[in-house]
Amino acid sequence: MLYTVQGILIAQSLGIQLPWFSIALAITLTAMLVSVPISIQGIGVREGVLLLTLGAMGIEYAVVITFSLFLMTISLIPSTWGLASWLRDPFVKIEQDALESAILEPIVFVD
Description:
single chain; mainly alpha; 5 helices; elongated
């Protein structure tokens, strides 16, 4: 929902004059199709779907591509935080005995 609201705000700031429902529908369809593992970070798929949906509603192609790149930037920001965390300690050291005992211990339910 927040991703959609962010997309609507970005669309309004770029001057896309469409009803909020149309923009939300295009963003939702785009998010669903970007989740299909066809490309890295949905590059190309996102632009194609947005060009198909928003371009059919009369929005200029350059504005649609700019909108798409802003949406990609929104999704990349949390990923960079994860990358920074991983670079700080990329390999967590887990002792083999502790891992085996955690897997092989029976599950005990407490009443």
